Amino acid sequence: MYLHLGQDTVVRSNEVIGIFDLENTSISKITRDFLACSEKNGQVVNVSSELPKSFVICQGQGGTKVYITQISSATLKKRANFIEGIANIDR
After folding, report:
1. Residues 6 or more apart whose Cβ sits within 8 Å of residue 82
2. Distance from the first to the final alpha carbon of the chain
3. Is residue 74 part of a domain?
4. Which of 88, 56, 60 is closest to 74 using CA atoms?
5. Tell me, what's the pLDDT at 73?
6. Backbone angles phi, psi at 46, to 5 degrees
7. Which helix or strand (DSSP H or E) is residue 6 part of?
8. What is the pLDDT of residue 28?
9. Can you give the residue range of the structural domain that contains 78?
10. pTM, rounded to two decimals
11. CA dihedral over 25, 26, 31, 34, signed as positive or negative
12. Is residue 15 part of a domain?
């Protein structure tokens, strides 16, 4: 299954490591350092044309990617849980 992150960007749901609220987590120096290092290494993909609200860390065959999105972490979590619920339906 896939998780829509905004714009024309989707990721495989099994590649998602974490979904984080940008405002709350960027208070930490560790998080700011992580995001700066990811940006320096070319691992950040900005899928937001508006004010970013969250970031999603994914690990796939191409390595680690950090997606910056205008969609809130709560909405992304609901989407991820919905996808997981669909995958668990007995057919």
Report:
1. none
2. 16
3. yes
4. 56
5. 93
6. -90, 115
7. strand 2-6
8. 95
9. 2-86
10. 0.86
11. positive
12. yes
Phi-psi region of 43 (alpha: psi -120 to 50; beta: other; left: phi over 0): alpha
Which single residue is written with the structure tokens 């004010």? 51
What is the predicted pLDDT for the residue at 79?
Answer: 83
Residue segments in the chain with a per-residue pLDDT below the cut of 70: 82-91
**Half-sphere exposure of residue 55, counting CA atoms within 13 Å on the CB side?**
22
75 occurs within a structural domain: yes
CA dihedral 34, 42, 13, 24 (to 10 degrees): 30
Q: How many domains does the chain have?
A: 1
23: its two tokens: 């405002």
Residues 72 and 52: beta-carbon distance below 8 Å: no
Asked whether residue 41 is domain-assigned, the answer is yes
Return the structure tokens found at 58: 């994914």
